[in-house]
Amino acid sequence: MARAAMLHKPDALHLWAIMSEAALRILVGGRVVMRDQLAHLLEMAELPSVTMQIVPFGRGAHPAIGFAFSVMRFPDGGNDVVYLEELTLASYLDRADDPQREAYVTVWESTVKAALDAKESVRLVDSVRREL
């Protein structure tokens, strides 16, 4: 809750999330819970510190299908840091010369292009919410 509250601050860091349409459609906790979760996503997407993009099923396979990762970018223009979280461990890829880090950054950038833009993503989330 404390981390989520940080998104409402005037000096909030920017959160840019990309997810598959599957994340919107797999029922977790039942219809009411999912409807509430999707409504929450829509509220968060209105914040100036949040960008939400969805890769719809119709776009087919995308570069990040099957795995999750985070890319952290810093205002000073330093190297991106890739964060990988698995069941029992986590890794940070932060060396500028690390080809694995660069591969994740390339996949991120390709996935941004494969996803709907922010406005289209909001419309899709709202459509799925209304279906429930």
From TrEMBL:
InterPro entries, A to Z: DUF5753
Stretches assigned to the DUF5753 domain: 1-126
Name recorded for this polypeptide: DUF5753 domain-containing protein
In its UniProt entry, the species of origin is given as: Actinokineospora auranticolor
